[in-house]
Amino acid sequence: MCTSLTYTNQANGHFLARTMDYHLDFDAQIMFMPRQRTVNGDAGPFKTSYGFIGAGRNLNHEMFTDGVNEFGVGVATLYFPDHAVYQEKATAGRLGLAPHDFVAWALGNAKSVADLAEKVHHIQLISRSAALVAVVPPLHFIISDPTGATAVLEPTGPDLHLIDDPVGVMTNSPDLNWHLQNISTYGMFSNADLPLQTYGNYHPATQGPGTGAVGLPGDYTSVSRFVRTNFLKKFADVPTTTADTLSLLQLILNAVTIPKGAKHISNGSSDYTEYRSYMDLDGLTYTIELYENPGKLQQVILTKHLLETVTEPTEFPLSREPQLHVLNPEKAF
């Protein structure tokens, strides 16, 4: 399933963060993709021009679920069940891409959200299965850049276009316009306490702070996660530094992170948050936090050295050991 949000801190630093929720472990690694590559995608080969890093796997070809490129464009893919519409083959003059290859194509070819908005007119998403999941994945995408522009791409027909995302949040189905209309239901929510009414001669005693958010949905549906993420994004104190921003994004995603077993799907398996990622669109860094060791941030910086000297796709293997810092290391009895 998944939840994503963009964020701008007080220093005007721009970030894209997401949870990756699914019932299969992708065994994702941080992978660097060099400039000027030809990728043998599942709907046919495509070329990339720009270097990028993200969560990737190299199975029969390089595939990415999210990442950031050398221009600070961040892209993430999320499930869009019962709404994604693909084509059987590309029409003349357009490039056909398997849906799970869109992230690599976009990161490898877009300098900004505005640039991508022009280029998506020349592609179509083709119904091809992904080897790792053995299905045609129903996907939509969130894109952001260092200007703060944020858009989503929702493939609902043969012609693709970007839709402005004014709240900078995306979850899963229904579509973005439905979610935006739905949050009007919660438009009266506040981080302040609400005054209590008097009933006859009875004056109720307060139950404590937080009454402004009474009724905030707490379940794991995409609808509730969209509302909850918007609430926290709006009311949390805005940090200044990159480190503090990463901490805040971790706390926001805590509210939508799914432990194994808490959300069963129709086939009896369990969706869970296998990783969370944080993309610094100005600092060109990709940071990942795995289910096995929450709180342990593992990061790769898209450096000049990588971009100018590394010519082959390169994986950075991740540690999955739980993080534990013993404060009194002397041996126990």
TrEMBL record:
<dbReference type="InterPro" id="IPR029055">
    <property type="entry name" value="Ntn_hydrolases_N"/>
</dbReference>
<dbReference type="GO" id="GO:0016787">
    <property type="term" value="F:hydrolase activity"/>
</dbReference>
<dbReference type="InterPro" id="IPR052193">
    <property type="entry name" value="Peptidase_C59"/>
</dbReference>
<dbReference type="Pfam" id="PF02275">
    <property type="entry name" value="CBAH"/>
</dbReference>
<protein>
    <submittedName>
        <fullName>Choloylglycine hydrolase family protein</fullName>
    </submittedName>
</protein>
<feature type="domain" description="Choloylglycine hydrolase/NAAA C-terminal">
    <location>
        <begin position="2"/>
        <end position="309"/>
    </location>
</feature>
<keyword id="KW-0378">Hydrolase</keyword>
<dbReference type="InterPro" id="IPR029132">
    <property type="entry name" value="CBAH/NAAA_C"/>
</dbReference>
<comment type="similarity">
    <text>Belongs to the peptidase C59 family.</text>
</comment>
